[in-house]
Design brief:
This protein is an all-alpha fold. It has a domain of 143 residues. The chain is 70% helix and 0% strand. Helix 3 runs antiparallel to helix 4 and helix 3 runs parallel beside helix 5. It is elongated, with a radius of gyration of 29 Å.
C-alpha cells in the first residue's frame, strides 16, 4: 500500500533494524522491528489517516472474453451497473449515469433478441456485440473514472472537448452501434416472417377457378 501511514510504519521498522544492525539495541530480538512498524503506522495514521485496504472500485472492471457469450457479457454488464450505482467519489453525474444504465439495458435487450432471433450476425458484428459489453464500455468507464472530476468537466483535451463530453460521445457511438445490431436482427426476422407469410398465402390462399 502506498498510504502515508504505511510508509511511516515501514520507515520506523527500518530504523529499528538499522539500530539492531549497529548493535545499539543490545540483546533485543528482531520482533522489536514489528513493534516499530506498529508504532510508526499508528503515528502516521493519527497524522494522515489509516491506509485503506479497499481496492479502487473502477479497477474491478476487467473482464475476460471467455466461454459462453451470454454469461461473459452478463458479468460485464452487471459490473458496469454496480459501479455506476456505487458512483465512487460522485464522479458520474446523474444524467451520465442514467445513460450508462440505459445502454446496459439495451445491451441486455440485444442479448435477449439475439437468442430469440432466427437471423444471424456476421462475425464482425458478433465481435462488436461481445466487445461492447465486455471491453469497450467497461474500459471507457475505467478510463473516465481515472480522471479527476474537476479536470474531467473543465479542461479541454486535444479534441477540443472535455473528458466528460468526450465520454458522452463514446456512449452515443456505442448506443448507435447497439441499435444498429438490433435493427439488423429485426430486419432478418422480418424478412423470414414475410417469406413464411408468402409461402402460406401461396399454399392456402384463394385459388382462381378455371
Amino acid at each position: 500500500m502506498n498510504a502515508p501511514a504505511n510508509w511511516c510504519g515501514l520507515l520506523a521498522a527500518t530504523g529499528v533494524l538499522v539500530l539492531k544492525a549497529l548493535g545499539l539495541l543490545g540483546t533485543l530480538g528482531l520482533g522489536v522491528a514489528a513493534l516499530g512498524y506498529g508504532a510508526g503506522l499508528a503515528a502516521g495514521a493519527l497524522w494522515w489517516g489509516w491506509p485503506s485496504t479497499k481496492e479502487d472500485a473502477w479497477e474491478a472492471l476487467k473482464f475476460e472474453d471467455e466461454g459462453d457469450a451470454r454469461e461473459a457479457m452478463g458479468r460485464a454488464l452487471s459490473g458496469v451497473r454496480r459501479l455506476t450505482e456505487h458512483n465512487p467519489g460522485n464522479r458520474i453525474p446523474a444524467p451520465l449515469a442514467q445513460r450508462i444504465q440505459r445502454l446496459c439495458e439495451r445491451l441486455e435487450g440485444l442479448l435477449d433478441q439475439w437468442e430469440r432471433s432466427r437471423g444471424q450476425l456476421s462475425l464482425q458484428e458478433t465481435f462488436h456485440a461481445r466487445h461492447i459489453a465486455i471491453s469497450y464500455l467497461p474500459q471507457a468507464l475505467n478510463t473516465y473514472l481515472s480522471i479527476p472530476p474537476q479536470f474531467a468537466t473543465t479542461k479541454l483535451l486535444a479534441n477540443g472537448k472535455t473528458a466528460q463530453t468526450t465520454f458522452e460521445g463514446v456512449l452515443a457511438e456505442l448506443e448507435t452501434k447497439v441499435e444498429q445490431l438490433g435493427d439488423d436482427l429485426a430486419s432478418q426476422d422480418a424478412q423470414a416472417f414475410l417469406r413464411h407469410s408468402e409461402f402460406l398465402t401461396q399454399k392456402f390462399g384463394p385459388k382462381d377457378i378455371a
